[in-house]
Amino acid sequence: MSDLQFDGRAVIGGQRVGAVSGATFVCLSPVDGRVLTEVARCSGADIDRAVVAARSAFDDRRWCGQAPAQRKRVLIRFAELLLKHGDELALIETLDMGKPVQYARKVDVNSAANCIRWYGEAVDKVYGEVAPTADTALALITHEPMGVVGAIVPWNYPMIMAAWKIAPALAAGNSVVLKPSEKSPLTALRMADLALEAGIPAGVFNVVPGFGPEAGAPLALHMDVDCIAFTGSTRVGKQIHVMAGQSNLKRAWTELGGKSPNIVFADCPDLDQAVKAAIHSIFFNQGQSCNAPSRLYVQAGIKERFLEKALALVPGYAPANPLLADTVMGALVDPAQMDTVLRYIESGKAQGARLVAGGEQVLRETGGCYVQPTIFDDVNRDMAIAREEIFGPVLSVLAFTDTAEVVREANASVYGLQAAVWTRDLNKAHGVARALRAGTVHVNQYDEDDMTVPFGGFRQSGVGRDKSLHAFDKYTETKTTWIRIDSPL
Ligand code: NAI
Ligand code: MG
Asked: Which of 101, 200, 201, 376 could bond 62 through an S-S bridge, CB–CB 3.0 to 4.6 Å?
């Protein structure tokens, strides 16, 4: 680890540069509170520089002018370089945001690389259309890159969230200005180095670290940015749409919060599997996943048995140093997020929920940010822990009796990201899945995931979809070209 080098400078126009103002911020590790490095504290002037670099790269067509098959080769090389540097990237990620290094390597690095490879491989396989018009003309429908795409991403899966935006945007031929979260800026900066090494031309992919209001807002407000793609809180997501509207009506796409319901009927085909999935999916990544199934509805009759099995799994998620190879629960991203989570735990207790596991900060002596996996039983719909996104290892258990009632309760949320239903009754599975207002519904599992399927939510979980070929729609404009045909016949 002593060999690990951090470079906190921005990447603009293919160069490593400090902020114009010279300002930096300190990047602290939630593993043990140590200072990792100083990072460029970028603001409006830096965003301007990055947008100018991105615009000139787009205008001279150094990237969008390359054949799709050539962009494919470069993106595949980029993905391979991420894998080649996988151990280094995983270690940086763990130090910067606290997730277990085994998952940083196996999940974050691999999925980010896979995403970039997937869009690279796809880009020379998508066709335009010829419209079914009369013989007097030909109408071509083509999809063109938008120009300069701004991306603002969070800290929970820094590399994956970046990849979900930059891969389709770059594959389609756009230039990108990426602002990583101030809580986890380091891997995005390394990704930009590796993109250059792979052959993505200077200026096409820029990374500008900094705080939301100082660096994110100028990007979302910029008059020369054509599209802004955001993942983060619903609160800021709403501001992104406002900023897009009050500036140049740039296309705005948001992937926001969730409070996903997980409904387990008494006729669940495999209770052990349902318990395992419920527990793993809420505690994975220290509960900092937008799609975590944080509302667990268990049908009366099996609730006691379900909880007993769930409690038996909790010790397996005891927080430990995420740098150790077999740790499954690491540190929360920073002291502020830990305080938010602990406040929600206090509110659960104060509002009368029954704490049946965890509830405490632990490993204080390390100087890091660790919270026990926590389960509340007897939660009711009016409690904050049943309604609000906690973004920590806290599960709320609610009982239900009848199907119509649980669907109504599950849908009574401002969010609509994901949902799950567990039953062996095919009619009930389909009927409930159809009635749930969510971008993704899981039946008898919660783990399936693939680049081939769209990811995103209904309602205040955001606008637009990441992943799959549908994501190209976000980063391209649709053009019609009419050509007159004077028939010689
Ligand atoms: P956030 O929404 O403030 O941050 C996400 C990104 O937006 C970061 O890059 C941040 O710098 C940027 N940002 C913040 N304010 C901005 C502004 N005014 N203009 C432009 N960009 C801005 O999320 P935060 O504070 O890190 O986490 C707070 C809560 O948000 C979490 O507890 C969780 O509930 C939710 N969240 C949801 C995520 C998801 O995947 N849906 C990811 C991260 C957080
Ligand atoms: Mg950090």
From this structure: 201
